[in-house]
Design a protein that fits this description.
13 strands, cell membrane, ABC transporter, 309 residues, alpha/beta, elongated, translocase, 2 domains, transport, binds adenosine-5'-triphosphate, 11 helices
Length: 309
């Protein structure tokens, strides 16, 4: 069942076309991630869906409801992670949660949320003395306090160290296990790949690709990158390069001294041929690796831009 349907969304700021024509549907229980380069229109898209910005054109339907007709009902259905600057610094973690709970007719128990965000032992600490990771966990706690069907998390792990980031992933996976739909933006490819059911790549206000991480990667290319290094030096690498360059499965090859990098659509076959040749010549191969393509490769191929970390 679709929880969110966005159709032909547009938004300009003066002459800047932030969102040009965005349409997608999110199913119940999905983790749906929007990625894209800086200024692609991710935050603008999210803010229109969250009811914080009015679209110039297009429609947004959340559980069959629209902002114009059903604003108060939608507010009970969604949870939005506040920016960490919007937390009340002088209140404790628990007091922040109690305060946000008071805004809703129905809410989760504060103790239950503290448990989910792993802040029970810090419940009495003021926000100003929490670490960056703890603040972000509290911000997610505030987004889930009304037990929403859909949670919006805009770059929840930006600036956090790897362990703090993983702690946030655990919370996202717990929410997913409870059936909550999660709309996420991130600048971390590993995060998008690990958490998302589907990933939407946005660039210059348009969706340029939308699919599961695995489908995006396999759609990009069948090629695999292979690297070999030769103990017998440059000459061995160069001879091998010449011998196998007519092999039809190899689409590209680069040599740097005694190191050879190849891209093949049939890596196993190419490797078999290659090692057949080196064995015949008696060349000693030092290191062999085959690299799987990642979501980062997909991003670079589709947007032509380097990934920002
Ligand atoms: N309030 C605003 N006034 C004018 N221009 C804006 C405003 N908000 C966003 N923009 C512009 O709209 C475009 C899309 O911005 P948006 O913040 O949605 O992108 P983003 O994908 O979230 O970027 P980032 O990854 O850097 O957060 C950018 O060119 C941005 O400069």
């Amino acid at each position: 069942m679709s929880v969110l349907t966005v159709t032909n969304l547009r938004k300009s700021y003066g002459t800047v076309k932030a969102v040009e024509d965005i349409s997608f549907t999110v199913e119940a229980g999905e983790v749906f991630t929007i990625i894209g380069p800086n200024g692609a229109g991710k935050t603008t898209t999210l803010e229109m869906i969250e009811g914080l910005q009015e679209p110039d054109a297009g429609t947004i339907s959340i559980n069959g409801l629209t902002w114009k007709k059903d604003e108060s009902e939608i507010k009970t259905l969604i949870g939005v992670q506040p920016q960490s600057g919007a937390l009340f610094e002088l209140l404790t973690a628990e007091e922040n949660l109690d305060l946000f709970a008071s805004f809703y007719p129905r809410s989760r128990k504060t103790s239950e949320v503290l448990e989910m965000i792993n802040l029970t032992e810090h419940r009495d600490k003021r926000v100003k003395s929490l670490s960056g990771g703890q603040r972000q966990r509290l911000a997610i706690g505030l987004a889930m306090i009304n037990d929403p069907r859909v949670i919006f998390l805009d770059e929840p792990t930006t600036g956090l160290d790897p362990q703090a980031r993983r702690n946030i992933w655990d919370i996202i996976l717990k929410l997913k296990a409870l059936g909550t739909t999660i709309i996420l933006t991130t600048h971390y490819m590993e995060e998008a790949e690990k958490l998302s059911d589907r990933v939407c790549i946005v660039d210059q206000g348009h969706i340029i690709s939308l699919d599961t991480p695995a489908a995006l990667i396999s759609r990009l290319t069948q090629e695999r990158e292979m690297r070999l290094s030769f103990h017998d030096g440059e000459e061995a690498a160069s001879q091998t390069e010449k011998a196998i360059q007519s092999q039809p499965d190899i689409v590209r090859m680069e040599r740097d001294g005694a190191n050879l990098t190849l891209w093949s659509v049939k890596p196993e076959q190419s490797l078999y041929d290659l090692l057949g040749f080196t064995k015949e010549r008696g060349y000693r191969v030092g290191h062999v690796s085959i690299r799987e393509m990642s979501l980062e490769d997909v991003f670079i191929a589709f947007t032509g831009k380097e990934w920002r970390d």
